[in-house]
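Appendix B. Extra example for self-study. Work through it before the problem class; the solution is given directly after the inputs so you can check yourself.
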Amino acid sequence: MRPGDIYMASIARYIARSGALASFFVKPILSKTYIASLNAVVLAQILVFALALSQLVRVEEYYRYLVPGVVLLSFYTTIYSLIEEVFFFATRAEAYLYTYILPLPRYMLAIGFTLAVSIMCIPLYIPYIALLALASPHAGSPTGVLISIASIAAMMTIFSIAVGGLLASIYMSIKSNWRLLLTVFLLSDILQRFSTAYYPLSYFPEVYRYIALANPVTHFINLSLIIIGIDPTLLIDPGFSAAILAASVLGFSAITILGAQKFAEGGRLV
Amino acid sequence: MAFYRILLMTRMGFTTWFRTQEILVRIFVSSILYIAVFGLIFSRLSYPGYIAYIVPGAVSTYSAMLPIYPVGTLIHIAMGRGGYYAYMLPVPRWSIVAVRIIVSLVLVVIASINTIASYWILAGYPNPALLISILPAITLTISISLFYASLAYIIRDVPKYFTLIPSLSTILSIASTAYYPPASLSYIPSILREIIEINPISLSADISRILLGVLDGEITIKIAILAIELTIISIPLSMVLARKLEF
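Solution. Structure tokens for the complete assembly:
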């Protein structure tokens, strides 16, 4: 066995251990009540909110644009809140003593936690993704539908790792509880409001467009809408979106690895 | 003496809730973003008057959203170790809930004033008549807080409360006319449309809109329906709550 293989095997083992730990925190949250409530809210948004707003708006095929936006934004808020909850319990509540004495590198904890949360969360959205893929122009061939589902699921995983990494570094660097909760909330609220989930970029006032273009949530949703086959005149250039999303994923992952190691190792645990 | 103790408890409620600036900053930023981003962009997408239309809607949705955490903290305390202290206090049981309702009311008033002020800044002129929309929202907040408190004592499970109640409040807000005029509900089945029209959040928002002149309709009927609904919600729930709180 080469040294590289041994190194990769240790990384996989570390991630698997962190994931097992994360699922320990996530499983009690993902109760039947939670799943039923989540679906009730998503369905109400699709059947009432999106339908009523599409009657109000002068854009053609707006309902087709809005429904995937609603579903993907719901995925983002679920991932965000679950990772937030897992990190709060793992690094702030009584469990932190056990979390930090584990023989695992800190960045592995961060990556493992976010991977576990996204793997547990994506199946909740698979039925909606399948419906969206069936409504896409590629719906004619089963291979096209499967490719659409697989592409969106892969993007969801990559995106949730990026968001999770960002949250992990915030959780491991801010000591004061109220400052931490405020930062996490503001980040979530600003990213949601300035995303193109509910409205195409061309309708944003000029000042807001720069924020929306720098927002990874915008590009995650934009690329998913491209896969689903939404009218391209309402969307951002796919090359530009892919570049920004890739840069966010790399940037956030680097922040996670460096930040988690630097701040969590040593004195600044809680 | 009991009144003085209740006042002390209210003060304690405020100091614990507003000890850090977190909640105030959250309310401040959220309500500005709601109007300055969602409202502004949708008024470009739909029609220019849309932003004026959703201000009373936003104020009414706060009545469903903001009491969740003050009331939830109460159940959190009552279910945990704090329950021993809360129930040993020499005050009437109802006052423990009343303090939380007062905190919710303050949050709703702060968020509403902030939303209205954001609209004034965006629209470029102050319209004091908009402050009227806070009045139905205050009545609604009292009833909804009582409703949440009763549900909390019936559920008697903290994680379940924080899962069910935020979803319930989101559904209540979505299935109302807070975000859209009744005309845009034409594609929705008639039974669902009728439910949306008698939703207390819709009634509260529509009463303010009629008073402000942004919606046509019969105000007396809406006030009567809202009054009946709030009475039906409040009285039986207060009785349930009183029985659950008693030892």
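Self-check: Residues 142-173 of chain A form the longest helix (32 residues). If your reasoning did not lead you there, revisit section 3.
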